[in-house]
Amino acid sequence: MKAKETGIIFMAGSLYYIIAEMICAIAFNDTPINTYIYHTISELGIPNINSPLSFLMNSAFVLIGITLIAGNCCGLKEYITKNRTLFYVFSMITASGVIIVGLIHGGNPLTSGYHTLGAVMAILGGNILLIITSTSMKEFNEYSKITLILGIVGFIMFWVLFFNMESVYMPVYERLSVYTMILWSFITGLYLFKS
Question: What is the pTM for the complete model shown?
Answer without folding.
Answer: 0.94
